[in-house]
Specification:
2 copies of one chain form a homodimer. Chain A is α/β, with parallel strands linked by helices and 366 residues long. The first copy, chain A, is 44% helix and 13% strand. In chain A, the strands form 2 sheets. In chain A, strands 1-2-6-5-4-3-7-8-9 form a 9-stranded mixed β-sheet, with helices on both faces. The first copy, chain A, has a 3-stranded antiparallel β-sheet with strand order 10-12-11. Chain A is globular, with a radius of gyration of 21 Å. Chain A starts with a helix and ends with a strand. The relative contact order of chain A is 0.12. The model of chain A has no long low-confidence stretch (mean pLDDT 91).
Chain lengths: 366, 366
């Protein structure tokens, strides 16, 4: 579908407005039919939620668009044909990303390769080998451009085929500095993707968000070497939650750096020894992963917003606290229709008084 | 139960007679009620199978018993109270073994630790650590006294607790020579077990047979490091077939010696990193292993022998060839009762013309 320039502009402006995340964005678009209409409704909704809000200023959006152009980048909207189908299915898929390079690569079957920044020499060698062999077999190797495993996987893939790097900062921000050349090569020979607006320096909170895109793009995520509780394990968990294959390369338990991967395998990830193991798994992938690495999450039903205004935000607010609870529970306790509860929650969110958590849970900001 | 001296003697003589294996032994004992009666029937049965046979000479048995005594060893019969219950349940459990040391140890929950003879230093260290920690936690560590992993596991276990070694040769035969001291220590501080008669030098064919006893004694078998197609993997397979836990310590795929264990894990063995992982699995073991490492085998129904003589050995023989087929198939093709087919097969076996294979299959010797 082709957006009018006005609607494309409104979408960017809607997403850059305070308290609008991917879930809110999607709900608003469904409720109002267009970003233009949603933007108009936004201030009133926030007011009903109990606080004033100002939508993003058009000048800021004009500046952003100019910066994206200057960087040789383009926008990709969630309903564009080129937007990767697997990512679109993922929970809280980004409604808009910016990219440099060949967006058509995102239509290829993709494998994420992730792992530690301070990886062992053996693990770096494996990441390089796997990247090379997977790209050679026509798979798109996806990673996060970090030092260590990520970089080795990208390098390996570039030597024989295609790679996609998802970065935590803006499309025009070089990070990490050691990978400045690699980032430029990927933008020219592969595809470079950013969710944050141009000019954004990557911060700690951007990385898990970036990881969900890596996991969402790929049919499966391979962890090469990872410490317990590391970011790579978060990517693996997100892949599992999205119903994708989770794979790990094992290591000797005497080597502390193998613990994360070994634990993943104990928890149901597929043990992988060779690139062929990965290729077989990815080519057989039909949406029913062989990996059983999936954390149980409360079922999450997303309802469309009710028509009209949320009539009871104060009542819904009284059911919330700083402890996250499933929206489904709020609906049950309130006795209201799901659509009007969602609307009231959205109004609280736009007012900056509500936080959304994984698994369709919400909490009140205190 | 206490055997009369005459029956104990007859059992040893029956088992040492030509073409009598564990399955045959059990069938004969059930059919005739005692080894004394089975011995009397044996020559006629073999004759009906088409060839003469001579049962073991009493003098040879007297010599064997004297050798067992001289070695400070004793006999353990499959229906003795001290015979380990788990081993009794295992397929083709040995009807008689000889042992030195403390047979009461075999009543403890047991874990088999097996692996390569030419193991890496890291794997030897792990075997030692696991042996030590498991014995310290009150588990009986079972292994095969081989060089490498076996020896390290025994050594570790002896430092804190109990260990059982199952040897491929006779109870009075030292093998391997490098472990002469260890063998003697285990006989004094643990328990040493042999299936073959005293004086038997271990030969290649004895090792798989020894491995089934190791697997049968233990609630679970842990493979520490093993090459593909090695004896340790046979022990793991036998443990899986007996419905026990199969566990493996992973390793980096770049290290060829890790391939066997990694493949086991891919095939459903539980990945183990620490002795606690093993202890937890063994203490939770209720006969339903968490490991899914089990090869599919044709179902094997063991029937009691029919009364009287096998009436159609020639007819049953015509249904057999040098390719192993399931006994159940022979029963179906023959139109005879299962008991009389078993009897005819037994007669062919005693005549040295039939070989039994795993999974209840039989073939004709050509």
């Amino acid at each position: 579908m082709t957006l009018t320039q006005e609607e494309a502009f409104a979408r960017i402006r809607l997403l850059r407005s305070p308290n609008v995340g991917p879930v809110t964005f999607r709900q608003l678009l469904r409720r109002f039919g267009s970003a233009v209409a949603a933007l108009e409704a936004l201030p009133d909704m926030a007011a009903r939620g109990g606080r004033r809000m100002t939508v993003a200023h058009p000048d800021a959006i004009r500046e952003e668009i100019a910066a994206v152009r200057a960087a040789g980048a383009r926008y990709l909207f969630h309903d564009d044909t080129a937007y990767p189908a697997l990512l679109r299915e993922a929970p809280s898929a980004p409604p808009i990303v910016t990219y440099r390079g060949d967006v058509a690569l995102l239509a290829e079957p993709a494998v994420a390769i992730v792992g530690a920044r301070n990886a062992s020499a053996a693990a770096l060698k494996l990441a390089l080998q796997f990247g090379e062999a997977l790209a050679d077999a026509g798979k798109l190797v996806v990673s996060g451009l970090a030092r260590g495993i990520d970089g080795a996987a990208h390098e390996g893939a570039l030597s024989t085929g295609a790679t996609a790097a998802v970065i935590a900062g803006g499309i025009d921000v070089v990070y990490p500095p050691q990978h400045a050349d690699l980032q430029e090569r990927i933008a020219n020979e592969g595809v470079l993707i950013a969710e944050q607006p141009p000019g954004t320096e990557p911060q700690a909170r951007h990385f898990p968000s970036r990881n969900r895109i890596i996991a969402g793009l790929a049919s499966g995520t391979l962890v090469v070497e990872a410490a317990p509780k590391s970011g790579s394990l978060i990517t693996a968990r997100l892949a599992g939650e999205a119903g994708r294959e989770v794979m790990a390369i094992p290591g000797n338990p005497l080597d502390g750096r193998a613990r994360g991967c070994n634990q993943l395998i104990r928890d149901g990830a597929v043990l992988v020894q060779t690139p062929d193991d990965v290729i077989e798994l990815i080519e057989d992938f039909t949406g029913q992963p062989r990996s059983t690495f999936r954390e149980e999450r409360p079922a999450f039903t997303e309802f469309d917003l009710a028509e009209g205004a949320g009539e009871h935000p104060a009542e819904i607010e009284s059911l919330l606290s700083s402890a996250p609870v499933p929206v489904d529970d709020i609906v049950r306790s309130s006795g209201e229709s799901p659509g009007s509860v969602q609307l009231a929650l959205l109004e609280l969110e736009l007012a900056g008084r509500l936080t959304r958590h994984a698994g369709g849970r919400v909490s009140l900001n205190t």
